[in-house]
Design brief:
2 copies of one chain form a homodimer. The first copy, chain A, is of the alpha/beta class. Chain A is built from 16 helices and 33 strands.
Chain lengths: 577, 577
């Protein structure tokens, strides 16, 4: 249990018995009873940040909930904070007003750039917020052996994290082929965390390989993109994290799997979200409304964003409204839109009607210099972006809107002056990934179809998971310009066309995060999206771009070392002979 | 996770991938998928006692399940093994063929007689069986301060148990008034087990006192006897153990609370069962059939006897059929009668068609002498059973069939020769409890109504929880005879009438358990029941008798120190002036 210490327990008991007044009583609300599955009309007493009981209690303060629904605040079971481009304090400012009270964060983005130093910064930056952030230790840094990251985490580096009580477990075990094959280094890492939570990541894995993968320990999966995939993993004992973020949107496909009878091991998670989405549509409140819109029973949806993640992550006294539970609460207007009217954290009002009320100034702690000077690419120029033509067809990365899974296409390239050229007419753009941690000079080149670029280029220092420099363009000089600008900014995002930078956003923290606030970052991102749209790109091309180097998600990806056939986990040449 | 060690893991992986043959493949069964809530037609491969996967696998041995349903074997979340009158090996012989694979046992009966030595014997006797027995450390020995037990367990005695990995947590915290009041000794014990499971026991507790009780930690309750009681405790976050044993039968009252939406924190348990019931109707298979008969969905019922207790007791890799889970399995004829066709424990066939197939001879380990010489009452005679008459009404214990809750009645006694007399015409019998551990000479006398005795007496050394000598009779010389016979036997049960012992059963182990097998003990018990029925008693009067000294269940009980008003937790006189 979540033991508060003897003295606090004695005081809580005096309040519970009605002998001492509570700190706070919430009246005129309907309590979402996630165990008995009903709405209860009862007053709720809070003391020392905990719920002490239901009933008629005296209190120092009473708050009228005006008929709103009192629910546990939401817990996102799988998020990469870095993908929001915000530091933890700035992220809290954005998502706490939406009703979020807890996150299980995998800091593998910053870990790929800066190793344990990066993780330590995130732990530090997460302190003292009205948002409980659990961290998990990333086992796959780098995500795969066919790329160059800024840091490598072996079992020896993870060992102190396994003993750290603030680390809830092992983050997504992404190298599923290696894991199923019994790779000793991966099993070393899993064994370190055998008494904690172990997250899985095995897109499209099934049958015997999935049996083997699950045997090693991963207890969850957030990569299910089809109903059948979700059903198989659920039946094999994995907790299914139904993901709906800025790019990956699996909820519609998985909604038929979610019933009151099957949902106890399912959660709503976001994985990767951009700050503009978080500011505009919200965080899990959006996912909840979407789930209910797709036919999920409201209290089932609510369990998936509260009680279920609390059970999965073994969070005692979290995820429900009951005696002894932490008073991490949200007051909802209804169970249809899930609009939060008030948010409490440990019994303190943390937001009201969208306004963040946290006491502190919320500024992120100053990052150490090692985390703000992370751009270290070898010199590169226009000639490095050229692809000499050969005979035969090219392997082309085929994009799928709303998914991070890519197709492997075979297409005859457009050739100009002996070189493979981008061809907006065929929606073919050039993709480049430049190693930016160790000045190795590694540079991968490829082609993508479905990105929409008609002219110019976009580039970024956010490129999962090694976060090398990535750019896509249909005109090499613009591509070079955008890449160079990011190098100059010390990390960020940029759009270039006709020899000009049209929009940019500085991301000085590990080349991944801004130190500014959510509104500023979202505004910058909007400018970038507008500029990219002018070039023909669909919505949020930076999120899509950032996944094109992630060689643990099928089928064809590009890293600094070249094209990767993910299914076979091997480098392949652009030209298939 | 349930980590098997590296070498075993590598071998399991080779089997899961299909590279090595499995030890066993179960074919032609329908797998009860308790996560996806369906029956799956798939083969199941087992290796090293674990399920390695679903699918088409090679194996050294194949067993045809003939269309039976493959489910996890059952786990009883709350049982007192001592109440079965059998040692753990003999109990396994009875209940494993019924499909039981796990128990969470509270050894507080033997602990009241023999303290930690008694618990240690139970731990020893539970080893090597095809039945996983978890033990919990009893916090309330004695159950209440108003009785005399053979041993007292303070926090100092429990501390080594809290560190023992075979002890899953703290057993039922029965002193609920003391707990809600913040009794320091009780909180000391709870704090020792704060990282483990803590079981509750709070019959009829509600409102603010229940809030306070729950705050201290008890996470379950098996005492709910009404729908409203179950609903309140469930909504306040307790796991509800729906009890159906030989005497306490709460299932019918609680069945309306059990729905697919509410059942995740509910379990089926037996608490106290006699061996004849276990042999004749079964164990949890009976409770499952009963639940389904009362309208509970079959897979919901099955979860309540498998997955739910596994989750509550934090048993990783137990309670479901999935890769990595222990192959503790039962093959059921159907999901209506739940008749077990085969039972597997750690992948080995442990029973088939009711026949127990365990390799060992199953004999219990020889108990140390301290556990077989536990009858130590001060001398007592006929005169000690006399109750001098006074004016006014008597407090009478009113029995309720099928419940352990008693009523407190006020009745004018029948008086003969200046003494209060039993009166079969009014269904009034005399009740006596004699301290039998320390020869203190304590002797409590009272009256019960509703026991049915027309003549003679019955007596027992099983009397929850202090297990003093208890007897009920309508003729003092027969009552004395029965009590004396139990003393001579070193513990047991007896029926006496007309100056003769009509039936008896020896319980030499702590005065609680036989060292004989289940069939022999059940036969002896049947003889006793028949003899008692000849005296007018309803079925299983010994179980009913054994609860009449349990002063933690309302309302009126009798201990060696006298009548106890349980609600006020104080001694009261027989005559109310």
């Amino acid at each position: 249990m979540d033991w508060p210490g003897r003295e606090r327990m004695n005081r809580l008991l005096a309040v519970a018995r009605g002998e001492e007044p509570a700190d706070l009583v919430l009246v005129n609300g309907r309590v979402a009873d996630l165990f008995g599955r009903r709405l209860m009309e009862t007053e709720v007493a809070v003391s020392q940040g905990r719920i002490v009981g239901f009933g008629d209690y005296r209190a120092r303060k009473r708050i009228n909930l005006q008929g709103g629904i009192l629910a546990p605040s939401f817990i996102d079971g799988h998020i990469h904070i870095e993908s929001t481009l915000l530091t933890p304090p700035e992220l809290a400012r954005v998502i706490v007003p939406w009703g979020t009270g807890g996150l299980a964060a995998d800091p593998h983005e910053i870990a790929n750039v800066a190793g344990v130093e990066g993780i330590s910064y995130m732990l530090e930056a997460a302190k003292g917020l009205p948002l409980d952030i659990l961290f998990l230790a990333p086992p796959c840094v780098p995500a795969c052996p066919l790329e160059t990251s800024g840091a490598v985490l072996e079992a020896a580096q993870l060992e102190p994290l396994a003993r750290n009580p603030r680390i809830a477990g092992l983050a997504e075990v992404m190298n599923f082929p290696g894991t199923a094959a019994g790779d000793p280094g991966l099993l070393d890492k899993i064994e370190l965390f055998r008494d904690k939570v172990i997250d899985g990541h095995a897109p499209l894995l099934s049958g015997k390989q999935l049996n083997a993968y699950i045997l090693t320990g991963p207890g969850s999966d957030h990569e299910c993109s089809t109903l059948e995939e979700g059903r198989e993993k659920l039946s094999k004992g994995q907790w299914i994290m139904v993901r709906q973020g800025s790019t990956c949107r699996n909820m519609e496909a998985l909604a038929p799997l979610i019933t009151t009878a099957t949902s106890r091991r399912m959660m709503l998670v976001t994985d990767d979200s951009h700050p503009d989405d978080l500011l505009e549509r919200g965080h899990l409140n959006y996912n909840l409304a979407r789930a209910v819109g797709l036919g999920v029973a409201p209290l089932t949806a609510l369990q998936m964003a509260t009680l279920n993640p609390a059970e999965y992550f073994r969070l005692e006294g979290r995820g429900a409204v009951a005696p002894g539970y932490r008073a991490n609460l949200v007051v909802l207007e209804d169970l249809e839109n899930f609009r939060p009217l008030m948010v409490f954290h440990a019994g303190e009002l943390a937001a009201r009607e969208g306004e963040y009320l946290s006491g502190g100034d919320g500024a992120p702690p100053a990052p150490p210099e090692g985390l703000t000077r992370t751009m270290n690419a070898a010199p590169f120029g226009l000639e490095d972006l050229a692809i000499p033509a050969r005979s035969g067809k090219c392997r082309v990365i085929g994009l799928n809107p709303g998914e991070v899974l890519t197709d492997q296409l075979l297409m005859k390239p457009t050739v100009k002056e002996g070189r493979v050229a981008a061809d907006p007419g065929r929606d073919l753009a050039k993709l480049v990934v430049i190693e930016r941690h160790k000045a190795s000079g590694n540079l991968g080149l490829g082609l993508i179809r479905g990105f929409g670029l008609k002219c110019g280029a976009i580039a970024s220092s956010v490129a999962h998971d090694a976060h090398n420099l990535i750019g896509a363009g249909v005109f090499d000089p613009d591509l070079l310009l955008a890449l160079k600008r990011i190098e100059e900014m010390g990390g960020g995002l940029a759009v270039a066309v006709d020899g000009d930078i049209k929009a940019e956003l500085e991301l000085p923290l590990a080349g991944l995060m801004s130190l500014a606030g959510g509104r500023e970052v979202a505004a910058g991102l909007k400018r970038l999206h507008r500029a990219a749209r002018d070039l023909g790109c669909p919505s949020d091309p930076f999120m899509a771009l950032s996944f094109l180097a992630l060689a643990v998600i099928p089928s064809l990806k590009l890293t600094d070392r070249g094209l990767v056939d993910v299914t076979r986990m091997e480098l392949v040449k652009l030209f298939k002979v």
